[in-house]
Amino acid sequence: MEPFPSDRIQLPRNMIENSMFEEEPDVVDLAKEPCLHPLDPDEVEYEPRSSRLLVRGLGENEMDDDEEDYESSAKLLGMSFMNRSSGLRNNMSVYRQNPNESCLVPSTRTMVVCTVILVIAVSLIMAIYLLPKCIFTKEGCYKKNYTMELIYPLATNGKLFPWSKIRLPPDVVPLHYDLVLQPNLTTLKFAGSVNIVVNVIQVTWKIVLHSSGLNIMKATITSAGGQQTKPAEFLEYPLHDQIAIMAPEALLVGQNYTVNIEYSSNLSDTYYGFYKISYKDENSEQRWFAATQFEPLAARSAFPCFDEPAFKATFLIKIKRDEKLSTLSNMPKKATTPVTNGIVQDEFFVSLKMSTYLVAFVVADLKNISRETNGSLVSIYAIPQHLNQVGYALNTAVKLLEFYQKYFLINYPLEKLDLVAIPDFQSGAMENWGLITFRETALLFDSNTSSARDKKLITAVIAHELAHQWFGNLVTMEWWNDLWLNEGFATFMEYVAMEEIFPELHSDEDFLNLIFKAMMKDSLNSSHPVSSAVQSSEQIEEMFDALSYIKGASLLLMLKHYLTKDVFQAGIEVYLHNHNYGSAQSDDLWDSMNEVTNGTLDVKKLMKTWIQHKGFPLVTIVRKRNVISLQQEKFLYHMEPENWTSDTSYLWHIPLTYITSNCNFTHCTSAYLLDQKSAVIELPEEVEWIKFNVDMNGYYIVHYAEDWKTLIDLLKKNHTALSPKDRANLINNIFSLAGLGKESLEKAFELIDYVNKESSTSPLTQALFQLSHIYSLLEKKGEQQLAVRVMHRIEHLLGDKIDQQHWTDDGTLSERELRSMLLAFACTHDMRNCRTTANEMFKKWMKSNGTMSLPSDVMKAIFIAGAKSSDGWEFLLKMYSSSVSEAEKSKMIEALSTTEDVRKLIWLMQNSLEGEVIRAQELSHIVSTVSQSLTGHLLAWDFVKENWEKLTRKFHLGSYTIQNIITLSTSQFATKTHLLEVKSFFEAKSEESSQLRCVKEAIDTIQLNIQWMERNLAKLQELL
Ligand SMILES: [Zn+2]
User: Fold this and answer.
1) How far is CA 453 from the centre of its chain?
2) Sheet strand arrangement including 616-624
């Protein structure tokens, strides 16, 4: 998927499934907690804790009911001694962890109590293991193997639900699905029937699978021969989105059974599952469009299924539709047959073996253009009025598909590949196998209104999604903890492919800027290892973040440079061949690489230090003549005492690269693997300067200690001695070090003094980012005069560059992109004559009633200037409603969000949430723009607070959109009052909300802003 823009070590699956007490917070495992102490009952502080295991999804205030449920279930099962809360209540076992984590000497009485409990516990456990592998329930004795199933939650009908884990049991696996759906775009409901062929791995009486929000009418089980179809009881446990089909007789090992489930549901009004979209056709009449978005956990809301990525199966899909509409699914259409008056059924070919999250279908009025390449038909689909904007996507998709087939040495395995523009879509795109869905702005290119930047975005998103057809679809991560294997790889391949096929787009510059942003997140305490254990839906949703995507990709970039391009590519080929149509973990990738390096390099050992740790290293360089001393430590803002320890677990194996004044070309790049805390490199001769992390191909920051001055002088005298990426890297590193307090802000400002001679996009972008970030924080803190002085500094550095820009679409793509950025910045901040020129053009455009063609690259700057007046804003909104170009609309909505009129800003955010005039897909973009301005930043946060419930209903908790809305609406705060307010707000919400990683990131960021101000405010007064 392409978004828009528990740090414990993952247990192998079999360990999780067989871990008796895993995940139950109220269960005490005596063997694992040696420091739990018997206490006198009087000393016990009873703290009720909710048990996710035994309740039916109720709130905290319903705890008493939950406890009763728990106790009755537990008593029934004879296991009440295992529950901490009920145990405390009954004074049967009284334990509390010593806060100092040291063991106290227990009294004789408590020793006796403890011993008795231990004896009972051990006897019971032994009885369970040694006796007949049988569990006594109301129904009698079942022959079972899972001791962990002793405690069951309750199903919606009050019966015991036979499974307590979030993950599905491994005793039954799906092989094939026959899915028949009948969506009704008038009633906005759908009916469904699914036959699932399952294979039994271990004898069982139940089939547990996922279902969410489905109204199940009937379930049957048919045995392998197919003659005996028997009705089956089904139980539902909504807290885990699970249902259990109870077999009338034992399901035997090695046998196949077919489960049939009949159900119905409403088309969703969120962006997940099988959802509906309303849009206006070319005659301005309302039409409905139905599409799917299943990743990560929403296939279960369209059909009952084994909704975990490792449960791969084949799918035969049939969709009944209005004969005037069309349908698409992963596979080509096999047949269309009449059903009743005006209704026909489309049947698609059986799919390849794949994960449920990759299943997709669309029902709508669509038009397409197609082209065949290497035996596959590539088509771009859109609603009819957008058909003239699909040409660029088709050419691009064909070129990229051809590139990937050669690069991976595996053909794209399907006969067709459809790319569909969806009129309302939360993320950028979704890689469903054979049916990739896109947000319209990420697929449609309009030659009159799409800018150079838009072209790059479309190319990048197509490149990303096509790479997923191999990374993700052919080889899938086994579980969501390794999401980076999908997303990091697709992001990495996106840039590899673009550099190769579209070098004129200079996509590596964008990648560099994204890496800087990912490092910013990764330097906070709230960060997480790229591969992190996840269980809950919020945790899974939160994996779709900059770390899985960008850090994952930049680690692969670093590895590619270390191994060399050819070895790396050979390793990928081995990985894809070894695991095709299967699932993989991070280690499988390293093993494949090691097969290629053949023992010369241990890729697994190296990469584990990067994948299993959060954060990244800071390498400090001290140069004395030709001797370079190196030292690594963790780069972390908000150093807290425990983070200062020289814990060896924070030792990275860093493939360092460097160039020197004696030879600064790429072919002169030297390498050194720093796998110790410190090391010394001896150069063959003395050098004038040395620059590490060549082209920022490594994921670390370098501090040059006493050598910054040399590099500052080099940039002043001859900045082109270093590559543009190296220059951007130095700017980023010195400002990061100034934020950490390791280097002075004065030196950082001194380093960027050379920028008025700079003409490359990436160093200019980085310098502008750093300075405008400081400006923004000062402005919001009420330091207006100082903010104005920062703006003067920006003008001093970039003023000439802004004056040199033409208001046209001429030049290379890189020049055009730089122009868009500089003029939009100048018009936003009323710098130079930007607004004068832009206003003249806006007035002409208004006079022509929007028919005059504006240069696409400067269109946003013109709209920003125009939106400053009330008339201009109203006109822009009118044009927004009637425009058929999503590229144009996107620039309009951004300009509309820059107004200083408070009422208009509130109106924009509210209307976008409602999704009528402005689509809800734009909301995070609007909130982001509003949050940046002085007028808007408090409004944006108020909006989030007031609409929190609506927001989390529309966009799931933890989703990329919610992550963005939270972090962006709070990113400008730099006071303790705001810190307290943000903390209290989320603490007062659900536990799931306050535990979100993005909430922690928001809090860390505010603290960092406060710290930055305390450290640098006085210095800024002197400097500017
Ligand atoms: Zn992706």
Assistant:
1) 23
2) 678-682, 627-635, 616-624, 701-703
Which residue in 419, 409, 326 sits closest to 377, CA to CA? 419
Exposure letters 129-167 (e unless 16+ CB within 10 A, then b): eeeeeebebeeeebebebebbbbbbbbeeebbbbbbbbe
Can you name the residues that pair with 672 across neighbouring β-strands? 656
| CA nearest neighbour of 377 among 364, 394, 356 | 394
How far, in Å, CA of 628 to CA of 617, rounded? 18
Which residues in 687-833 belong to E strands, given as ranges? 690-692, 701-703
Instruction: Walk across the sheet containing 229-231 and list its strands.
Output: 229-231, 215-222, 256-266, 189-200, 172-184, 314-322, 343-348, 333-340
> What average pLDDT values come out for the chain (1024 residues) when binned by 10 residues?
48 28 31 30 30 29 36 33 32 33 45 58 50 39 45 92 96 98 95 98 97 97 83 96 95 96 97 95 92 97 98 98 96 96 96 98 97 97 97 98 97 98 95 98 96 96 98 97 97 97 93 96 94 94 95 97 96 96 96 93 95 95 94 80 52 96 81 95 94 97 95 97 97 95 94 96 96 95 95 96 95 93 95 95 96 96 97 97 94 96 97 94 96 95 96 92 96 95 94 91 94 91 88
Q: In this structure, what token pair is assigned to residue 312?
A: 């791969």
547 DSSP 8-state letter: I
Judge whether 894 counts as a catalytic residue. no
Q: 595, 571 in Cβ contact below 8 A?
A: yes
How far is Cα 985 from Cα 980, in angstroms, rounded to an integer?
Answer: 8
Contacts of 239 (CB under 8 A, 6+ apart): 52, 55, 56, 57, 153
Distance, in Å, from the CA atom of 753 to the CA atom of 756, rounded to the nearest integer, reads 7
Q: What is the pTM of this model?
A: 0.85
Instruction: Please identify which of the residues 465, 542, 817, 922 carries the catalytic annotation.
Output: 465
Which amino acid is located at 100 in the chain?
N
How far apart are alpha carbons 737 and 722 in whole angstroms? 20
Coil, strand, or helix at residue 398? helix
Q: Is the peptide bond before 3 cis (omega within 30 degrees of 0)?
A: no
Rg value, the chain, Cα: 30
Angle of CA points 764, 970, 834, to nearest 5°: 40
Helix-helix angle 886-896:902-914, to 10 degrees: 140
Distance 361 CA to ligand 1 centre (A): 18
Which helix H or strand E contains 607, and what residues bound it? helix 603-611
Closest Cα to residue 865, out of 887, 905, 832, 911?
Answer: 832
The helices-and-strands tally (H runs, E runs) of the chain is 32, 33
Instruction: Report all structural domains of the chain as residue ranges with CATH numbers, in order of start.
Output: 150-365 (2.60.40.1730), 474-609 (1.10.390.10), 913-1015 (no CATH)
CA of 523 to the centre of ligand 1 (A): 23
Cα(79) to centroid(ligand 1), Å: 45
**b/e per residue, 471-505, with b = 16+ CB within 10 A?**
bbbbbbbbbbbbbbbbbbbbbbbbbbbbeebbeeb
464 carries a ligand binding annotation: yes
Q: Are 308 and 170 in contact (CB under 8 A)?
A: no
Instruction: Copy the structure tokens of residue 896.
Output: 């509309």
> Two tokens at 406?
């050669």
Q: What CA–CA distance (Å, rounded) separates 997 from 877?
A: 36
Alpha-carbon distances of 444 from 275, 367, 507, 921, rounded to whole Å? 22, 13, 19, 16
Which run of H or of E encompasses 192? strand 189-200
Dist. CA 95 → ligand 1 center (Å): 47
Residue of 966, 975, 974 whose CA lies nearest to 1002: 966
